[in-house]
Design goal:
alpha/beta
Amino acid sequence: MPLNSQMPPCSILLLAGGRGQRMGGQDKGLVQWLGEPLIAHLQRKVRPLTDDLIISCNRNRECYAPFADQLVVDDEVDFPGPLAGIRAGLKAARHTHLLVLPCDVPRIDEALLQSMRESANLNPEKPLMLRHDDHWEPLLCVIPVALAAAFEEAWNAGERSPGRVMRGLGATALQCPDNDPRLANLNTPELLNSHNTVSD
């Protein structure tokens, strides 16, 4: 399906900078699933949607570089959490909006990515988060880059929850079906093994 040319361009951030505790300390984005690292599955799905693909990674930069237009790292050591990666992505983004995805949702599809962009475009000054089962998904979101200063202010005040920051900024929700398989978070070896068929 061709990219909707009526949509404004966006930057896309793939979060792969975590400690990988549930993966036994492995660099999660490089863990193999269906014969490829997780980051490759996400990169293939988002590559047609942007000319500014950013990966947040804190190790193995040489492995991630072929998948990205830009790499960013946390500005603090010892894996301070996803909000640090989002802040770095907002600083690096070349477009007005940043679509954020974690590296462990390889079943997300083009239709949902397009819905995220379209829904964010309806309220372009507010963050958008996915929501399902009465649960916000703060790492699947679209953030106006103009809010970067507000994210910095929250960080400097000690906030470390991306969801709380975005809800405080009046985030809107894109509601997904309950138990939406596209949002399967494959963040343990057991979950990777249980989702061992091609998604789309």
